[in-house]
Design a protein that fits this description.
By secondary structure, the chain is α/β, with parallel strands linked by helices. The chain has one domain: Alpha-Beta Barrel (TIM Barrel). It has eight helices and nine strands. It is globular and about 50 Å long. The model has no long low-confidence stretch (mean pLDDT 97).
């Protein structure tokens, strides 16, 4: 089975050969690697992007980049365009950092992302960091993106604890697309967050409501040094899929097909 981990973080300057060696050991074909976070500086954000680019350029086809940006930083739309159009990033990573996606000041950024037909991985749900920032990360606020229909976006962590709200947003975006799959903008990232006592229900509900073709597998691992967690999460989720009675085709789609479609290398 092909495995693509859609949600891996970068710290420091990992060695590409070592990362690939660990991916091979875990049976992972490809990862989507988020560049390091920066909350206030456009210049530092660009430096972080270039550092991530050095890593994924050294392992084409195995490591793809997600440019972690803060849309509230002046000039960020231009840098995001550079990341997608010139630097080779497969998509964008965003945490709503004390702003709501529906704010008028952010509309030029969404318009640029719409023009670029960008794919975006959003942090949604409880946020263990960024001060008291969780309230900005509810999936409901992403309904705004229906006004920018060329953007595709995934909601990470099944938006826990707002898992049902995440599915409600999925339904709203499906309706906005006229119930046509080719226009449906939104996806669910299964990356953990959900605790064990509700994970089976949350994942099962997502598969039933959205279908496997709308779901991405991810681990929230970190390179270098945390791919042991990746191996554990792969095993845990595959076992969970068996418990839920998913077909081989559904498993393949969740484990790689959706990510390859939304964030092509």
């Amino acid at each position: 089975m092909r495995i693509v981990d859609c949600h891996v973080h970068m710290h420091g300057e990992p060695d590409a050969a070592e990362v690939v060696k660990r991916l091979d050991a875990n049976g992972v074909a490809r990862i989507l690697l988020c560049s390091e976070t920066e909350r206030v500086s456009l210049r530092t954000t660009r430096e972080n992007l270039l550092k991530a680019k050095r890593l994924f350029d050294a392992a084409p086809g195995r490591i793809s980049g997600l440019a972690w940006v803060n849309p509230a930083i002046p000039g960020m739309a231009g840098l995001a365009e550079e990341a997608l159009a010139e630097l080779g990033f497969a998509g964008i990573k965003i945490i709503p950092d004390h702003w709501y996606a529906y704010e008028e000041r952010l509309e030029p950024f969404w318009a640029k992302m719409n023009e670029l037909r960008a794919s975006i991985l959003f942090h949604t749900g409880i946020l263990y960091g960024y001060d008291d920032g969780s309230r900005f990360c509810r999936p409901l606020w992403l309904e705004k993106l229906m006004n920018y229909p060329a953007i595709r976006f995934a909601m990470a962590h099944i938006s826990w604890p707002w898992c049902e709200e995440c599915l409600a947003v999925m339904g709203r975006m499906r309706a906005a697309a006229g119930y046509k799959s080719e226009g449906w903008q939104s996806y669910v990232d299964l990356t953990p967050g959900t605790p064990k006592h509700i994970r089976k229900q949350a994942v099962g509900n997502a598969v039933e409501f959205c279908g496997a073709d709308r779901i991405l597998f991810g681990t929230d691992s970190t390179v270098p040094g945390d791919l042991v967690h990746q191996a554990r999460q792969i095993a845990a989720d595959l076992a969970l899929f068996d418990e839920l009675g998913l077909t081989p085709a559904q498993k393949e789609r969740i484990m790689s097909g959706t990510a390859d479609e939304v964030f092509p290398s």
